[in-house]
Amino acid sequence: LGDLGADVVKVEPAPDGDFIRRVEPSFTPGMGSYFATVNRNKRSVVADLRAPGGKKLLAALIEGADVVVENFRPGIMEAMGFDPAELVARHPRLIVARQSAYGATGPDAGKPGVDQIIQGVAS
Questions:
Q1: Mapped to the 3 state alphabet, what secondary structure does the chain carry?
Q2: Which pLDDT score is estimated for 93?
Q3: Of all residues in the chain, what percent carry a pLDDT higher than 70?
Q4: Which tens digit of pLDDT belongs to each residue from 50-70?
Q5: Can you name the residues that pair with 83 across neighbouring β-strands?
């Protein structure tokens, strides 16, 4: 969406951000080429979403957002206090898109995963 002009803010986990940042090859410290490619035209912020300050930051970002895309394991957003149904009730124009590595139901639903892992499993 950033390529189409949207203002995209990626919230990365504290303390060091997305671990994909450090995947080689890297031409700049903290900015591996794969990370740079899949995160182009995005701004990033690092936050601990389980801590009060991180939750406050996320709530402020959501307040001004049109779309929230999350890719946690099922139930994680709710556990952090950001139930998608409640977010939409508070912000009726908000679109919440959810994706998880293995889907919302089924035997592997609770497993974490990222793009490269899912591609390997799907092969």
A1: CHHHCCCEEEEEECCCCCHHHHCCCEEECCEEHHHHHHCCCEEEEEECCCCHHHHHHHHHHHHCCCEEEECCCCCHHHHCCCCHHHHHHHCCCCEEEECCCCCCCCCCCCCCCCHHHHHHHHC
A2: 95
A3: 100
A4: 999 999 999 999 999 999 999
A5: none
